Amino acid sequence: MNVRSARQASRLALGAAGCALLCACAGNPFEDARVDPRSPIAAEVAKSVRADAAYPTFKSIPPVPKDVRPHRQYGQAAAQAEKDAATLAAATADSTWSLNNTETFAAKARTDAGPELPPVAPGDTEAFAKGAKARATPPPPPPR
Q1: pTM summary value
Q2: Contact 62/55 with Cβ under 8 angstroms?
Q3: Alpha-carbon distance 4 to 43, whole Å?
């Protein structure tokens, strides 16, 4: 019995919270919106806003175009494109290349590049940076 009343109470609380959130949205934030007169677009806003402008109606919605193909034909065109792609792949399969068995090429490239150098020790990098800072001289001050 208590479970049912707890569910009802939670539903009631959730409904009240939803109503409170929706009531907060009921106001019109644009009702008292003003344009800063110092704004560079203030003159354009004043020219474009008219209080007596007509609101659009449902009659102003354009009719459905007559020269558009039906939805089913889009699917048929997509299927035809997929079929053409498969035909093209099958027709060119014997001349298609891939990157298989490249170990020989990679070994030759490593040999042509020369001996593999060991990685630089962190101490060498720090010593280089310290020496560069010691050699660095600031530029002379500009003449006055």
Answers
A1: 0.30
A2: no
A3: 62
Whether the CA torsion 82, 86, 91, 95 is positive or negative: it is: positive
Decide: 42 and 32 in contact? Cβ < 8 Å.
Answer: no
Q: How far is CA 105 from CA 14, 90, 98, 113, in A?
A: 68, 28, 14, 12
**Residue found under tokens 């008292």:** 32
The first and second tokens of residue 2, run together, are: 């208590």
Residue carrying the six token digits 């707890």: 6
At 7, which amino acid appears?
Answer: R
What is the distance between the alpha carbons of residues 100 and 92, in angstroms, rounded to a whole number? 18
How does pLDDT run across 93-140, given as a tens digit for each residue?
A: 888 777 888 899 999 999 999 988 888 888 899 999 999 998 898 888
Q: Please give the structure tokens belonging to residue 134.
A: 């010691």
> What residue type is 144 in one-letter code?
R
